[in-house]
Amino acid sequence: MNDVIQSLANLDPLWIYAVIFSISFIENVFPPSPSDVVVVFGGALAALGRGNFFIALICGVVGSTLGFMAMYAVGRWFGTRIIEAGKLGFISINSIHKAEDWFARYGDLIIVANRFLSGTRAVISFFAGVSRLNLLKTIILSFVSSLAWYSILVYAGYSLGNHWRKIYGYLFTYSQVVIGTMVMVILIIIVRKLLSSKAQNHKHD
Q1: Which DSSP string do the residues of 62-82 spell out, in sequence order?
Q2: In terms of C-beta density within 10 A (0-12 exposed, 13-18 middle, 19 or more buried), how is residue 202 classed?
């Protein structure tokens, strides 16, 4: 990662903006990617007079929103067909219906929280498409989510300047906490379902 950043440091700011846009887009399609660190670096360059705060922010936000909507389109147009064909063997049709129920209830909140959930961004956008959430509302909510997240990152890089690398440790810790929390929630849901299933079986006995 340090080699990548060092290479970026020697580029013209226009190329750096292009990298921020591209990597923010790609992260939504092929996670994980180091987009967050690159965006922080863009903020740091702005503080050092080698870039512009708002251009770095806009490139990250627009790239991320377009990446989200690309996976949304895949989910909307091909998602059910992909799953029915067994391309994603670990996802059943029953799981699709459950995901649709979740998005029907909490879809807006899930999309707004999307950028803050490490490692699940492509999955959320894909299932938002499968669930056929309203297109315009999805674009707006995805944009809001990206704007909130990248505003924090660019501002962090801008505030730290030459010391921007400090944020890398915080991002790594944050990512681990989010993933750990999600794993715990999934385990709790599985255990509850198993216990509920056993209770139902005992009643029938």
Answers
A1: HHHHHHHHHHHHHIIIIIHHH
A2: exposed
The C-alpha atoms of residue 31 and residue 90 are separated, in whole angstroms, by 18
| pTM of the entire predicted model | 0.73
Nearest to 45 by CA among 78, 94, 5, 73: 5
CB within 8 A of 117, min separation 6: which ones? Answer: 124, 178, 182
Overall size of the chain counted in residues = 205
3-state secondary structure of 199: helix
State residue 90's pLDDT score.
46
For residues 62 and 18, the answer to whether their CB atoms sit within 8 Å is no
* Residue environment code for 7-25, b if the CB has 16+ CB neighbours within 10 A, otherwise e: ebeeeeeeebbebbbbbbb
The 10s digit of each residue's pLDDT in 55-79 is 989 999 999 999 999 989 988 888 7
Q: Which amino acid is at 9?
A: A
Residue that has been written with the tokens 């950028």 in this structure: 115
